[in-house]
Amino acid sequence: MPESMGRKFRRLLEDEPYLFTGGVYQPLDAQIAEQVGMKSIYLSGYSMALANAWPDMGFLTQTEVARIASMVASATTLPVIADADDGYGNALSTIRTVQEFAKTGVAGIHLEDQRFPKRCGHIAGKTVVSLEEALGKYRAAIDTRDRLDRDFVIIARTDAISAVGLDEALHRGEAVAEAGADVLFIEAPRTEAQVERVARAFDTPLLYNYAPGGRSPLPPFARLRELGFAIILLPVDTLLVAVQAMRGFLAEARARDDVLALADRYMPFADFNELIGVTAQLALAERYRADERSAT
Q: pLDDT exceeding 70 applies to what percent of the chain?
């Protein structure tokens, strides 16, 4: 049998000094990430929401996000970690969330302990459910994973630093690690001292959310590797870069009343067709057309 995406992601965690994981929000981004040599992909909830013209405040439903996850996973051979928000409800909803995302072909998901309506981890005003409720949801996710596919990765995220404080976040991390989470995501430490304290607190693999303009410091990747972070996420960078480029191009084209002078902004059309698989699909069509001719 081919290696599952969950197993592939786990093997990367074992083999790589750290896993640099670029954030995407649509299948085309996944193909670009694979073409440039990324080894894994993060499907960012913030970026998915904004790409659909909504803020990251719980507006996208589980079925919408699972559909996007399925399309992204189908577009790449790389393992994908998907943002599954708070499991879209209580422990029973979380069970269905794991069931549905496991069908999509992603390597795993991360689940958070925010109270609905959730918010981006670097926006003010977040609250968290009780530790008891959070643990119930994480246990439900882990038990469901164990019944379906033990390689499917469950990443436990806590937003308790913003909602309560660092000590509570560390306490929750310990409890979730004991419950069996594969990776811990202690969101939004405020200072490098807090980052170091998080790194020293756990033996379970840790994820660092490298969010530009957010509340956390952005140490060099080498420093995070030294501290022992296993995964570094770039959650929104691709979206911010794309929006800036698109806005600049459209504004300049409008001001010039011309696009011919902006030819250097374009990816060559032939290269784009190669990226999205047009050449391969035409060759496949020709192969089957030849089969049809030989049959007659």
A: 96
Interatomic CA distance for residues 142 and 148, integer angstroms: 10
- C-alpha 99/C-alpha 89 separation (Å) is 14
85 is catalytic: yes
Q: How many helices (H) and strands (E) does the chain have?
A: 13, 8
C-alpha of 240 from chain center = 15
In the numeric block, the tokens 């303009």 are attached to 213
Find the catalytic residue in 10, 18, 85, 113.
Answer: 85
Q: Is 110 a known active-site residue? A: yes
Rounded to whole angstroms, the Cα distance separating 234 from 210 reads: 5
Q: Whole-angstrom Cα distance, residue 220 to residue 232? A: 11
Identified catalytic residue from 18, 25, 46, 56: 56
pLDDT tens, position by position, 201-242: 999 999 999 998 888 999 999 999 999 999 999 998 998 999
Beta-bridge mates of residue 22: 41, 234
87: left (phi over 0), alpha (psi -120 to 50) or beta: left
Please indicate whether residue 252 is annotated as part of the active site: no
Domains and CATH numbers, the chain: 5-236 (3.20.20.60), 243-295 (no CATH)
Contacts of 252 (CB under 8 A, 6+ apart): 262
Element (H, E) at 6: helix 5-15
